[in-house]
Design brief:
The protein is α/β, with parallel strands linked by helices. Helix content is 32%, strand content 24%. The chain is built from 16 helices and 23 strands. The protein has a ten-stranded mixed β-sheet, sandwiched between helices. A five-stranded parallel β-sheet has the order 15-14-13-18-19, sandwiched between helices. Strands 20, 21, 22 and 23 form a four-stranded mixed β-sheet that branches. The structure holds xanthosine-5'-monophosphate.
Length: 544
């Protein structure tokens, strides 16, 4: 295995991710582990190499974090990245100087000599015969004098010592960030380190992650009980499946149906988790409560607030019931005391952790707006269990597939917490939600049916998010011999990589035609279908 010591950089988990992509097992631990801890960690002989990450500390706030000195005494290869390089230089007798200017952005690095790390790794060769590497830099301080035993491995115009190596001891360090995609050959550099220099085998797969995570969850939870808010979305579903794999019936999922879900969503979730996985799921039908509170409210933000507030209320009531110790009737032999839940599990994933600035503080609590149960763990005295907090979205999906969740559940489009509440413009009514659900199901079904010949993918896969919006206005139509006066829906489909900006999708006319005719024919009450051709910005993806 490879150990990554985390000095608090925002991109430390990217190092882990690149190593997982190279099919090598790695673990991230905080940089302040003790020498004794590290010696014990290395005792079984499985530790093949150590990577020292960058730090979040800027030029002006000096970091005093150091690597445990034992790092350099275990006889395993060490790679320092950015701050990791500086602390390596400092701890081994080199000199690090505070830079006056922060170097941030692309740089061209000249790889000197033929170190095992960078040999042959180059984007392009120069007439000087040096390989050039296009890299990403983000640092203020820099190494200005090599530690004894080290030779220069790489340099840039503004950073003469951008890489150093002591090949005898197998210590390598680079000032740039090989883990980010801006460093084009960065993955190759990391792969070279873990496979060739550390001599690990590329045999780790996501399936292995499951057994590691299962063992960890069992160790963490022991025989205690866990509750989890299940939405049917990717993250909470994968978290539920993983935790269930680990502790079975010690997990209780709470699925709140606020009446603003997609067609048959509740049944599908129950079928999957109860029917197939045999997990314990409490399904709460709170549609009446939500719709009651939403009656007469048309302001989008007010609607969001009400839905968020009611969600907390409903979830809290369930959580309270599940956390209370209870005496339950145990057959003929009398009562048995069941301990209440002491853990709240969440599908927090790594990007959520970064967003909250919690990358270094492992205790940072992240609550998704989706499951806005902020403050609940404290109020109920619950401990947090977040088994996905080191994974990226695509890794969560891969894990979901490895856990046996169906493809369509793991690769589904995002669905907002307030659900159809923000897709019914203005006041939310049950009648509107019922019409919208049916129209939306037709749209999604046809997106799945239509395959693009050029890519072989269907249009659900080719769009990032697609849904139907209910417009509470009526327009005139004609059906058979009669005049209709019915509602209008808008179809929305966008393509985006980050949901911050988005283009409306150029869906084939044949698809639009089919969807339109099916909705108008099959959903009595809707007689007009429009297609939204607005991009974000200036429009948003949702209509409210
Ligand atoms: P907008 O409409 O802001 O949407 O372009 C960007 C992404 O965020 C989702 N979204 C929400 N998700 N609660 C959520 O959980 C919300 O209140 C909410 N509003 C928007 C939206 O579906 C899209 O993916």
């Amino acid at each position: 295995k490879i150990l990554i010591l985390d000095f608090g950089s925002q991109v430390t988990q990217l190092i882990a991710r690149r190593i997982r992509e190279a099919h090598v097992f790695c673990e991230v631990h905080p940089c302040d582990v003790t020498d004794d801890w590290l010696r014990a960690y290395a005792r079984d002989g499985n530790l093949k190499g150590i990577i020292l990450s960058g730090s979040h500390a800027s030029v002006y706030e000096e970091s005093t974090d150091k690597a445990p000195q034992v790092v350099f005494e275990l006889g395993v290869p060490v790679l320092g990245i950015c701050y990791g390089m500086q602390t390596m230089a400092h701890q081994l007798g080199g000199i690090v100087t505070s830079g006056h200017q922060r170097e941030f952005g692309h740089a061209d690095v000249r790889a000197h000599g033929h170190t095992a790390l960078l040999k042959g790794i180059q984007d392009y060769a120069t007439s000087m015969g040096h390989g050039m590497l296009r890299v990403w830099m983000s640092h203020g301080d820099k190494v200005t004098e090599l530690p004894p035993g080290f030779k220069l491995m790489a340099s840039t115009d503004s950073c003469p010592i951008a890489g150093m190596a002591d090949e005898e001891r197998r210590f390598y360090a680079v000032q740039f960030h090989p883990e980010v995609t801006h460093t084009k050959l960065g993955a190759a550099v990391l792969e070279r380190f873990v496979l060739d220099i550390c001599g690990t085998r590329a045999d780790w797969i996501m399936g292995d992650y499951i057994s590691e995570a299962v063992a960890q969850i069992r160790a963490q939870v022991g025989d205690e009980e866990v509750i989890l808010g299940l939405s049917g979305g990717v993250d909470s579903s994968v978290a539920a499946a993983l935790i269930h794999r680990a502790i079975g019936d010690q997990l209780t999922c709470v699925f709140v149906d606020h009446g603003l879900l997609r067609l048959n969503e509740g049944d599908r979730v129950m079928e999957m988790f109860v029917g197939k996985l045999h997990a314990k799921v409490v399904r709460v039908d709170a549609a009446e409560q939500f719709l009651g509170h939403l009656a007469g409210v048309s302001d989008p933000e007010a609607k969001r607030k009400i839905i968020g507030r009611e969600f907390v209320e409903v979830f809290k009531a369930q959580a309270l019931a599940l956390t209370a110790s209870a005496a339950i009737k145990n057959g003929e032999s009398g009562s048995r005391c069941v301990k209440g839940a002491t853990w709240l599990a969440q599908g927090t994933i790594y990007p959520d952790v970064i967003e909250s600035g919690g990358a270094k503080n492992k205790k940072a609590v992240v609550i998704k707006s989706h499951h806005n149960v902020g403050g609940l763990p404290e109020q109920l005295g619950l401990k947090l269990l977040e088994p996905l907090r080191e994974l990226f979205k695509d890794e969560v999906r891969e894990l979901g597939v490895a856990l046996g969740l169906p493809y369509h559940m793991v690769y589904r489009h995002p669905f907002p917490g307030p659900g159809l509440g923000v897709r019914i413009l203005g006041e939310v009514k049950k009648e509107y939600a019922d019409l919208l659900r049916r129209a939306d199901a037709i749209f999604i079904e046809e997106l799945n049916n239509f395959v693009d010949e050029a890519t072989g993918k269907n249009w659900y896969q080719l769009t990032s998010q697609a849904f139907t919006v209910f417009l509470p206005v009526k327009s005139v139509g004609v059906m058979g011999d009669g005049r209709t006066y019915d509602y209008v829906v808008a179809l929305r489909a966008v393509q985006t990589s980050d949901f911050m900006t988005a283009d409306w999708a150029e869906l084939p006319y044949a698809l639009l035609k089919k969807v339109s005719s099916r909705i108008i024919n099959e959903v009595r009450g809707i007689n007009r279908v429009t297609y939204d051709v607005s991009s974000k910005p200036p429009a948003t993806i949702e209509w409210e």
